[in-house]
């Protein structure tokens, strides 16, 4: 294969997007795969890609759009007709305009989108009381992701302009809720893991206390999932209400969709 580098750019607060991207990258089977993580904005370095590179970009769907947080972070990258694979992962409700938005954004950055896909992942709001898309991506999803990666590469030179579902103008962004997980200080041992994974640096730990800035919090749920003490808790009635509603209405398992 002439192309040697695959760059995998991900924003994946609770890890499902990362899992899907890994399976696709395994199927693409490049000699070298480099990971670029968008979670911490200060760790992102500006980078230019060439027309020999392949870049896969994957993000979760937030309210039928791509997370606003990733838009400015992706501006660190410039491409020159670089081959791109764009992927969104959603919690079995719908991906709405997110895939179209991601595709259009990468075109603005100079990429050439060769393939796109929407996969399903455990919903960020899923809980024991209200499970949503538990176990996704499952082994079948990951097999589809792997085969998709293989197909993308086997089509080299025969790629057409891809079409993906979605409407423009995109669905208006939902107003940001002023909300945050709370910490049970009787369980917390100040390990700092929640602070490490927070994509918007909303968490501060000092004097045996954990403060969460609710103006910054995007409710990604990363801190809740990572806490080994189960000390981060969702107690907001609005979020619990969303979860209950999704649990009831999104039971029918959706299938991954690929666009080549
Ligand atoms: C604020 C927010 C909004 C979301 N909106 C949607 C949505 O519109 N449709 C959907 O199916 N899932 C939605 N989800 C669920 C995520 O897309 C899904 O759980 C995804 O797998 C998370 O990716 P990650 O594990 O890489 O963080 C939302 C999650 C969050 C945190
Ligand atoms: S991850 Fe949990 S235990 Fe660790 S500091 Fe955060 S809340 Fe405390
Ligand atoms: S504080 Fe908010 S933004 Fe930060 S990890 Fe927790 S849920 Fe996500």
Mean pLDDT equals: 95
Largest sheet geometry: 6 strands, mixed
- The CATH architecture of the largest domain would be 3-Layer(aba) Sandwich
C-alpha Rg (nearest Å): 19 Å
User: Which distinct ligands sit in these coordinates?
Assistant: flavin mononucleotide, iron/sulfur cluster
Question: Outline, from the CA principal axes?
Answer: globular
Write the element-wise H/E pattern from the N-terminal end onward. EHEEEHEEHEHEHEEHEHE
Distance between the termini: 19 Å
Number of domains: 2
Q: What strand line-up does the widest sheet have?
A: 2-1-4-6-7-12
Keywords for this structure?
260 residues, alpha/beta, Rossmann fold, Alpha-Beta Plaits, 2 domains, six-stranded mixed beta sheet, 7 helices, 27% helix, binds flavin mononucleotide, binds iron/sulfur cluster
Describe it.
Helix 3 (98-108) links the parallel strand 6 (82-90) and strand 7 (111-120). Helix content is 27%, strand content 23%. It has 7 helices and 12 strands. It has 2 domains: 5-170 and 255-259, Flavodoxin domain (Rossmann fold); 182-235, Alpha-Beta Plaits. It has a 6-stranded mixed β-sheet, with helices on both faces. A two-stranded parallel sheet has the order 3-5. The longest helix has 16 residues, at 139-154. The model has no long low-confidence stretch (mean pLDDT 95). By secondary structure, it is an alpha/beta fold. Helix 1 (16-28) packs across helix 4. The chain is globular, with a radius of gyration of 19 Å. The structure holds flavin mononucleotide (FMN) and iron/sulfur cluster (2 copies). Residues 12-17, 60-64, 89-94, 121-124, 219-221 line the site of flavin mononucleotide. One iron/sulfur cluster is lined by residues 13, 180-181, 197-200, 202-203, 212, 217-223.
């Amino acid at each position: 294969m002439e192309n040697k580098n695959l760059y995998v750019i991900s924003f994946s607060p609770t890890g499902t997007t990362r899992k899907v991207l890994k399976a696709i990258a395994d199927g693409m089977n490049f000699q070298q795969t480099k990971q670029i993580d968008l979670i911490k904005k200060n760790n992102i370095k500006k980078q230019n890609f060439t027309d020999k590179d392949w870049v896969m970009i994957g993000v979760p769907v937030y309210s039928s759009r791509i997370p606003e947080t990733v838009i400015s972070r992706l501006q660190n990258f410039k491409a020159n007709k670089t081959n791109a694979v764009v992927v969104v992962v959603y919690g079995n409700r719908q991906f709405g305009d997110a895939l179209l938005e991601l595709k259009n954004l990468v075109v603005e950055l100079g990429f050439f989108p060769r393939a796109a896909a929407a996969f399903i992942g455990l919903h960020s709001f899923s809980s024991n009381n209200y499970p949503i898309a538990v176990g996704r991506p499952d082994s079948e999803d990951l097999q589809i992701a792997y085969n998709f990666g293989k197909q993308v590469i086997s089509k080299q030179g025969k790629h057409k302009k891809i079409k993906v579902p979605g409407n423009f103008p995109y669905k208006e962004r939902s107003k940001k809720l002023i909300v945050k997980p709370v910490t049970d200080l009787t369980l917390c041992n100040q390990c700092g893991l929640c602070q490490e994974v927070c994509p918007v640096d909303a968490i501060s730990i000092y004097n045996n206390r954990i403060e969460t800035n609710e103006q910054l919090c995007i409710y990604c749920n990363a801190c809740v999932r990572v806490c080994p003490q189960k000390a981060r808790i969702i107690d907001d009635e609005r979020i619990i209400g969303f979860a209950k509603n999704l649990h009831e209405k999104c039971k029918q398992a959706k299938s991954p969709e690929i666009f080549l």
